[in-house]
Amino acid sequence: MLKRFLKVCLLIAVFHSPSLSFQANSSTFITNNPKEIIDQVWQIIYRDFLDHSGKYKEKDWIKLRKEILSNKYFNDNDAYAVIKDMLAKLDDPYTRFLDPKEFNEMKIDTTGELLGVGIQISLDEVSNQIVVVSPIEGTPAFLAGIKPKDIIVSIDGKSIKGLSIDSTVKLIRGKKGTKVKLGIIRENELINFTLIRDRIEINVVDSRINNSKLGVKIGYLRLKQFNAKSPKEMSLSINKLEKQQPFGYVLDLRSNPGGLLEASIEIARQWINTGIIVSTKTKDGITDVRKAKSRALTNRPVVVLIDEGSASASEILSGAIKDNKRGVLVGKKTFGKGLVQSVRSLSDGSGLTVTVAKYLTPSGKDINKNGIEPDIRADLLFDDKNRLTNSDLGTLRDSQYVAAENILLKKFKFEGNKSSYNPSKSNLSFALKK
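and the corresponding structure tokens:
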């Protein structure tokens, strides 16, 4: 089902827009002219929009401007309705208009704190149903027992059939301490959950040292999302684990739907010392190449866990590690979200997220719809799917983690357990042999 998810993942507790970059509009004044807001949106699309659906035609867009600006609009709501209809013609779910309240919420959300229940949701493109991607550990949704792939069918007793992601988010969010009732379909059974909204403060990195069966120390880091806090949390975690001198690391990006583009680049630089991390390509073919800065925090071997829920910024990081031969990817093919959205503020306080580029791995691979293939495929065992909990991730109950750990142990044995082990000279081709 994850393969059919609409590739815009929202956290009810934390908005998680794939590969976002923020840009302020050149207008610094507030305007009450509805036509001006409409034209600002039109100009941004005309200048910067990257068409990936084939629906955008420049001559039709120019013709549309004449039509919409020839009409009268009496208030902002009239303008907002026209803008949404205009953007719908692009057939791009990532290019979206946000009214002033929604836009302010987005800016707050990317800091990593918000009021909500703590679930990440997506829209199934085929069934048009709102589906839970993952509950966030320790949040009301997680503690109540909401699970990935649960289908939300009602909120406070009212059907949400046909509602958009944004509309669903609005209904679930609310003041701390207030109740919200979610109707969930799980395996054809209706289950009702009553949740108490709370402030969600997310630690995006879980880290620890695992002692393997050979007595070898393995550093385990699970990165849950890419927000403004992620690079700092990752660097602190790596530095803390480095003091314990693990042989290598398992970096877990499973079910990580992405987030801020800059966060993915900064985290990649913590793992990769030299080489290209990612390049972005706009409608004009201009390629922006981002590179490592010789500031990696560790050169120990790393195995990266990925799955079909690893998207966007997760694919940038895993693709960079793979193409630079920095580590081994284990798990399942990633989601395939390779488009970059820029967030533009408009002069009345509203905003626009617009697809402006696609990103390519260091080898030039287009990630969008293609995803990143693992070096070694590993599935969760059937029993694990039924029984595995978040606390089991990165343990011997987690079959994908076991596969990753075994790769590191194989490298350890191959190097003869030498105290002078040099990871930069490790035999990657040997590690990839089954």
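(Above: one complete record from the training split.) The mean pLDDT is 85.
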